[in-house]
């Protein structure tokens, strides 16, 4: 989705979803083929209703992604909140796990599974990083 205009985004997902032509998507969606053509050429921004309809047919994307790429939804804040919640969840869960429990988990780097020794090193370094992060006071002075 990054750096893709709404027209090319919709055209790409139309094709990936099995609609080879604008006419085939028009037939399925009830949106006039001229309107769809203008949307893909970015001569016309899709209406909210059109985005909703397209989201049910373009199976390789989501309603939120379509809303965002068409300028109706700012996913930046949602991404930040989700990332923050996931980071907090991981921190809490990681703090509660023993090394033995972590060693049972599958870890991989660049598609290659880590050995038990590599996992032990990873756990040790990660625990050090957590301790350092928790013990350091945040620098609130942006002038440095």
From TrEMBL:
Gene Ontology MF annotations: DNA binding
Domain HTH cro/C1-type: 21-66
Gene3D superfamilies with a match to the protein in the record: lambda repressor-like DNA-binding domains
Pfam families xrefs: HTH_3 (PF01381)
Protein name: Helix-turn-helix
Species per Swiss-Prot/TrEMBL record: Shouchella lonarensis
